[in-house]
Write a structure and sequence with these properties.
The protein has about 350 residues and is of the alpha/beta class. The chain folds into three domains: about 60 residues, Orthogonal Bundle (434 Repressor (Amino-terminal Domain)), CATH 1.10.260; about 100 residues, Rossmann fold (3-Layer(aba) Sandwich), CATH 3.40.50; about 140 residues, Response regulator (Rossmann fold). It is about 40% helix and about 15% strand. It is built from 13 helices and eleven strands. A five-stranded parallel sheet has the order 2-1-3-4-5, with helices on both faces. α12 links the parallel β8 and β9. The termini are far apart.
Length: about 350
């Protein structure tokens, strides 16, 4: 054990009472360093030289410093915490992912630290650095867009992550997601099976939404009778945005008004539903509407929302198990298939929902 330069012999043994009361100042005195060095050792270890860090940890051990959990984390290289990075916690789907992750983590003696970038790439990068400073043992990431470079760098330094989403191109990290293309196909196929022909897809700039749009386009292309799919792009997928799109649609003449809408998520769909009803449109008599995710509010809307069920809690739980090495990405194949949930915003269809 490395002794402090200010001691000339063995340090006096601490009583249990003294050990439990040890402070940062006590550790600093025994190690012969400043209080700031002790603080940095436990919170920003990269700012402390290996030699000083060892002295601080040795002193903390000898004193029984109450920051032992931080000391243990530095010795073993990680904590019992896992990080969860989401792009927008106001979307209930991320709360469901977090709930699934937390349940799986608790079952294995782990904890979840949840951070919300609020659609900001800059905040996202800052949170990745925060996770590194806390030495989390793994990260579950549902980023704003592509995987940030900081997260890839952290993986190279030994901290694994799981992407909850679609990986862009070849990748060496695990990525799990529902089949968004198939979900979009199910949504548009359902509307076409009702006799809807003037379809609109409303969605934001996200890889998942792009796949949902591709599925809707495939459904329209496969249908033998004439059908169209108009695309309305929005910046954010919120209920407020959906209501604004509804007001825009209401200004159209009847000849160009849609009879079916696929929304990129349920929040958009609920905003559209509210705006259309306020504008005098009868849903589903005049227009059918399908959302995506099956959040809790979908079933409690003034007109219960037809939607595509997305297994969000299952995704969160599987991500934790992958990080802990309990299962692999390959083990999840087929587990996250989307499901059409028909409610009152679309007309009942006799027989198959597929054209």
């Amino acid at each position: 054990m490395v002794r402090s330069p200010i001691t000339s012999g063995p340090a006096p043994k601490q009583s249990k009472a003294a050990a439990s009361a040890a402070t940062v100042g006590d550790v600093a005195a025994l190690a012969g360093v400043s209080r700031a060095t002790v603080s940095y050792t436990f919170t920003q270890p990269d700012r402390v030289s290996p030699e000083l860090r060892e002295r601080v940890l040795a002193a903390a051990d000898e004193l029984g410093y109450v920051g032992n959990d931080a000391a243990r984390r530095l010795r073993v290289g990680h904590s019992l915490a896992l990080g969860l990075l989401v792009s927008n916690m106001s979307n209930p789907v991320y709360a469901e992912i977090a709930a699934g992750a937390e349940a799986a983590a608790a079952a294995h003696g782990r904890f979840i630290l949840v951070v919300n970038s609020d659609e900001s790439s800059a905040r996202e990068r800052a949170y990745v650095k925060f996770f590194e400073s806390q030495q989390v043992s793994g990260i579950i990431a549902a980023p704003v867009g592509d995987v940030p470079a900081e997260l890839l760098g952290l993986r190279e330094r030994g901290t694994p992550f799981v992407l909850v989403g679609v990986a862009p191109g070849p990748h060496s990290y695990p990525a799990i997601s529902g089949d968004n293309e198939q979900g979009g196909y199910l949504a548009a196929s359902h509307l076409i099976a009702q006799g809807r022909r003037r379809l609109v897809f409303v969605g934001g700039p996200h890889p998942h939404v792009d796949l949902r749009l591709a599925g809707a386009q495939r459904a329209v292309a496969e249908f033998p009778a004439p059908a169209s799919l108009e695309i309305i792009r929005v910046q954010v997928q919120t209920a407020k945005t959906g209501e604004a799109v509804a007001r825009t649609l209401l200004r159209r003449p009847a000849s160009s008004f849609p009879d079916g809408i696929v929304a990129g998520n349920d929040l958009l769909a609920l905003g559209l539903l509210h705006g259309l009803i306020v504008g005098g449109i009868q849903v589903p008599a005049d227009l059918s509407l399908v959302g995506y995710d099956d959040i809790e509010f979908a079933d409690f809307a003034i007109v219960p929302l037809t939607t595509i069920r997305h297994p969000s809690a299952t995704l969160g739980a599987s991500a934790v198990r992958i990080l802990l090495g309990i299962e692999s990405e390959q083990d999840t194949k087929g587990r996250f298939e989307p499901e059409l949930v028909v409610r009152a915003t679309s007309l009942p269809v006799s027989g198959s929902d597929h054209p």
